[in-house]
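Below is just one:
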Amino acid sequence: MAGILVILTPAVGARLGALSGALGFLFLMLILAMVVATQGEKFHQMAVQYIQQYFSGNTDPEMQKVLDLYKTPRTFWWMMALGSAMSLIVSLILAAIGGALGAALLRAKERL
């Protein structure tokens, strides 16, 4: 079996970083899924209680409408899904940037 030598370019580093970001995100989603599967309603109640405490000093009527939306389980889980999707995108982007920077710095170090 012949070994394949891949030169670590910033593009390859970005792909590796994005892969590690995706794997890290999937690991965290697995943990969240286990918590939700075992304590879904309790998790929802605790999250709503935390949100209410965080925004307790806010008297804006629009914010109260948003808080009321979080109280319904359906809207809460949709917001959780939207937040998870945004977290995935941020994880992929930041990990890809980190991988590209790491590869570029490693290449610069090898040239010295």
